Amino acid sequence: MIRLLRHPVFGRLFAAQIVALTGTGLLTVALGLLAYDLAGAAAGTVLGTAYAIKMVAYVGLSPIAAALFAKACRKQVLIGADLIRAAIALSLPFISEIWQVYLTIFALQTASATFTPTFQATIPDVLPDEDDYARALSLSRLAYDLENLISPALAGLLLLVISYHWLFGGTVIGFVISALLIRSATLPTRQPSKDRPFRDRLTRGLRIYLATPRLRGLLALTLSAAAASAFVLINTVVVVREIYDGSDRDVGLALAAFGGGSMLAALALPALLNRLSDRSVMISGALLLTFLMGAYAFASPGWPTFLAIWLLTGIGYSATLTPQGRLLRRSAHSSDRPAVFTAQFALSHGCWLVTYPLAGQLMTAYGAGSTLGVLAILSGIGVAMALLVWPEGDPVVVPHRHDDLPPAHPHLQGRGPFHTHALIIDDEHHEWPTKG
Asked: What pTM, to 2 d.p., does this model score?
């Protein structure tokens, strides 16, 4: 992995990701404390609604942004989104009403709905080697875990000398530095693609995604991950403060335990994925999440056990989601990758759109045990759906027949209507064959 950090382009993109996510991690801690100040014990409801608004922006706007900017310069799109996020974050310290939280979060995440899928779809073009890309995914997972490990620890130190309102300044700095690092990198140009109508560009990624069995399985497992992470992100502050009578620094410690577990899994995954399939690793991670939520729903663990559960939850979460980029890369041509990454971004956040408000509302109304029980059931449904729609073995090379193409079609030349090759949903392959 260290070798990748010396890559002239990926190294700068990874550094940009780190500083932006560190700022976002400070935002997460500060937003939780702000919600507690504004709503007290009902902070879970406020945060659940805020994160639901975030998901609405992601689900509704990311496909539109991808279609609008399909041929735009990726560097300009990424820098523009970063600077817009920095400008919006400047207003966060001045929030004094709950409705202002909701409005600002929507505006901020509208820019993120443009930035994140574009960033994710750029990495496979920067690192075309499969092993390098697998390691890059683990590094990216580690970067995301800064929100739950280094950022809370940094926030805890800063809270010793400043109020949490000043933490929002770290968010602004992170986005600005990210924009500068991206500006200094030479990004690969977009792969040429056919000129398509706006409606086709808007729906193409979704059509490819839903027609591919492994991606339908990925979506089901994302539901499991969303159920667990929603409880962690929405209710950790309430659980620590109300059940364990903890401090702001204890909230950071709990989030750090979750992030630490996720980082441990990310570090182990490149070697693990050389021996095991993506499917088995991801389903095992989702099963672990389901078990942990179900067990905690019927137990009253002490503080050390609670931290251990959060650590294991981080491990299961990372094992479930980190390999997703490999599946997306394998399932689309390079020209279609931005659309497919955007489809995953929108559909996966649709899962969080369900679980975030559910976690917040149930916690406020019924407490931690009942909330975890419901989320464990939801996670189990995700695992069952993945086992059903994602066949074991998941072959890349698939025998299939083309009765929908004329004999003179270029795709059939030298092959005939019945042939075998690495199958990807595209203009010649509209459906996944269920039979050879």
From this structure: 0.76
Closest by CA to 31, choosing from 77, 79, 95, is 95
Widest distance between CA atoms in the chain? 74
Residue-number span of the structural domain to which 233 is assigned: 2-188+197-389
List, for residues 167-187, the tens digit of each pLDDT value: 778 888 889 999 999 998 888
Burial string for 246-285 (b: 16+ CB within 10 Å, else e) reads bebbbbbbbbbbbbbbbbbbbbbbbebbeeeebbebbbeb
CB proximity list for 129: less than 8 A, separation 6 or greater: none
The pair phi, psi for residue 394, each rounded to 5°, is 45, 65
With respect to residue 55, please indicate whether it lies within any of the assigned structural domains: yes
Domain count within the chain: 1
Residue 420: strand pairing partners: 399
What pLDDT is stored for residue 224 in this prediction? 96
Tens of pLDDT along 291-336? 999 999 888 888 999 999 999 999 999 999 988 888 888 888 777 7
Q: What residue type is assigned to position 47 of the chain?
A: L
Give domain status of residue 153, yes or no.
yes
Q: Cα separations (Å) of 32 from 39, 91, 255?
A: 10, 16, 12
Classify residue 171: in a domain, yes or no: yes
In a domain, 373, yes or no: yes
Instruction: Copy the structure tokens of residue 393.
Output: 């073995």
The DSSP code sequence of 55-106 is HHHHHHHHHHHHHHTTTS-HHHHHHHHHHHHHHHHTTGGG--SHHHHHHHHH
* Residue 193 DSSP one-character state: -
303: left (phi over 0), alpha (psi -120 to 50) or beta: alpha
Is 178:119 a contact under the CB 8 Å cutoff? no
Q: Could you give the residue ranges of the DSSP H alpha helices within 322-398?
A: 324-330, 337-366, 368-389
| CATH code for the domain of 48 | 1.20.1250.20
DSSP 422: E
Q: In degrees, to the nearest 5, what angle opens at C-alpha 246 toward C-alphas 24 and 46?
A: 50
